[in-house]
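The following block was generated as part of the benchmark described in Methods. Ligand: S-adenosylmethionine.
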Amino acid sequence: MNEHTLSMRLERVAAHVPMGARLADIGSDHAYLPVALMRRGVIEAAVAGEVAITPFQAAERTVRENGLEQHVTVRLADGLAAIKPADAITAISVCGMGGETIRDILEGGKAHLRGHERLILQPNGGEQPLRHWLMENGYTLLDEELLRENRFYYEIIVAERTTPVIYSAEQLYFGPLQMQARSPVFLAKWQRMLRQKQKTLASFEHARQAVPEDKVAEIARQARWITALLAG
Ligand SMILES: C[S@@+](CC[C@H](N)C(=O)[O-])C[C@H]1O[C@@H](n2cnc3c(N)ncnc32)[C@H](O)[C@@H]1O
């Protein structure tokens, strides 16, 4: 992967960035996503935010090697603190981190959100708490994608603040749009997840120390939801 050829995962993220956007890519690592989008003429400008020095330097190098210093600003910053009002950001991508980390970045950086940015999020697990945060903060899920690359499943969640929507607990768990679409990759993921939950429940029964009841109940509830989803 590089700024010319994105992974399939980042390519699908790129597809949700609107033409002419001013993008903030938070946790940008090598800044491949903003640089690729800038090279393709999709975005007008970008900020690549990084909290760690080595990826920050890698991002600076990618931008410099592509001669894009005037268009892609690299900032060493924690989360949304990379965004300044003058950037007039219209889309924010946060990709390749746990859903809880993405949620914490959004929650901790609320002061930097103007409210009408499109959020393009690609969590690696922890989708449920992330969707919960989005709902609680008045975001509607506009699009959801699930793809499989190198044996891993990746979700992409696109959200904007429009009319607030209430999602059920199951919708927050599975993704409301994915539940509707029931794509083959979605069903395959949840078949795998059901096998994992059943294994976990079986291991609890043989555990030497008693597993807390609420933990067992939570996993059993998830297994019931998945069974019902797959039966439907
Ligand atoms: C696994 S990489 C993902 C890189 C790229 N976004 C992608 O999807 O390929 C995660 C990056 O997020 C950065 N990161 C983690 N927490 C962050 C935070 N609070 N603010 C900015 N960057 C963060 C890490 O330093 C790391 O470079």
